[in-house]
Design a protein that fits this description.
There is one protein chain. By secondary structure, the chain is α/β, with parallel strands linked by helices. The protein is about 25% helix and about 35% strand. The chain is built from 3 helices and 8 strands, in the order αβαββββαβββ. The protein has a 4-stranded mixed β-sheet, covered by helices on one side. Strands 5-8-7-6 form a 4-stranded mixed β-sheet. The protein is elongated and about 45 Å long.
């Protein structure tokens, strides 16, 4: 572990939180389509919209999570190889009810039913409009 990592671990152990998540940015091909998907499927609320001639942003809120949908209007963004996220995960109280509700919305899941993860939680995955992987987790 490097010095920065050791310092962050020390600060967290001491109960001092230096940083907190502001939002999770997701590059999308059509921000309106993606926003409607997350509003309809996950119950997000649109909290802000802004744009210029190069970029359109839509901010969505779901509980304490803020998603930032980034639509590049002119040239596509350069492909970022390092630091690519694997999936978004949303906690649900009843995964079977959530799966049923999302199937009624036309969502296709990667598996036929939730499975137990290594940590004992029930999980299932589906894809968003641009192929982003979304996980539901039941504690």
């Amino acid at each position: 572990m490097n010095d920065v990592g050791r310092n962050l671990v020390f600060l967290l152990i001491e109960g001092i939180l230096m940083y907190e998540m502001a939002h999770l940015g997701i590059a999308v091909s059509d921000s309106e389509t993606s926003a409607l998907f997350y509003v309809r499927v996950l119950g997000c609320s649109i909290i802000e919209r802004c744009a210029n001639d190069q970029l359109k942003l839509i901010y969505l809120q779901l509980g304490n999570i803020t998603l930032e949908l980034l639509e590049h209007l002119n040239a596509p963004p350069s492909r970022r190889e390092a630091g690519v996220y694997d999936h978004l995960a949303f906690r649900v109280k009843d995964i079977d009810s959530a799966v049923s509700r999302l199937e009624q919305q036309g969502v296709d899941f990667e598996s036929d039913f939730p499975r137990l993860a290594l940590n004992g939680k029930k999980i299932i995955f589906f894809r968003g409009p641009d192929g982003e992987r979304v996980e539901l987790v039941q504690d």
